[in-house]
Amino acid sequence: MPAQQRNSTLELLRFFFMLCVVVGHVYGHGSGLDAEFVNGLGDSWKTMHHYLSLTVAKIGVVGFMLISGYMGMKLNVRKIIILFSTMLFYTYATYIYQTGSLNILHALKYTTNYWFVCSYIV
């Protein structure tokens, strides 16, 4: 069976979307200007570049997931379970480190910080 040829155009587009995600993370986390802060600034032309930067990152996430799915991701239940378990482990470890509490039910509320993993699994 011949090897599949890679579609260079899709790979380039996927790279562009990865770059959008990185720029969004650097801007959002590196500058401290998250979505809540930007929304608190109000609607004016002075805040347009903040909204634009955050929107570019969101477009990058969606585009990257769509192209990755199109390029043939295969369902592997074992890998999904490992990924989900890893997410839960780090959520719980971070919760214990930050609060000192061992309450698992309270820690589960923090899984929303890993929204990408849940979206990826779905």
How would you describe the overall organization of this protein?
α1 (8-30) runs antiparallel to α3 (48-70). With 122 residues, this protein is an all-alpha fold. The protein is built from 6 helices and no strands. It starts with 7 loop residues before the first helix and ends with a helix. The chain is flat and about 50 Å long. It has helices at 8-30, 35-40, 48-70, 77-99, 104-108, 115-121.
Number of helices: 6
Structural class: mainly alpha
From the spread of the alpha carbons, the general shape counts as: flat
Number of strands: 0
Average pLDDT across residues? 78
How far apart the termini lie comes to: 31 Å
Rg, alpha carbons: 18 Å
**pLDDT under 50 segments (min length 5)?**
none
**Helical amount:** over 70%
Percentage beta strand: under 5%
Order of helices and strands: HHHHHH
Summarize the main sheet: none
Task: Offer a few descriptive terms.
122 residues, mainly alpha, 6 helices, 0% strand
Secondary-structure topology with pairs:
Elements: H1 8-30, H2 35-40, H3 48-70, H4 77-99, H5 104-108, H6 115-121
Helix pairs in contact: 1-3
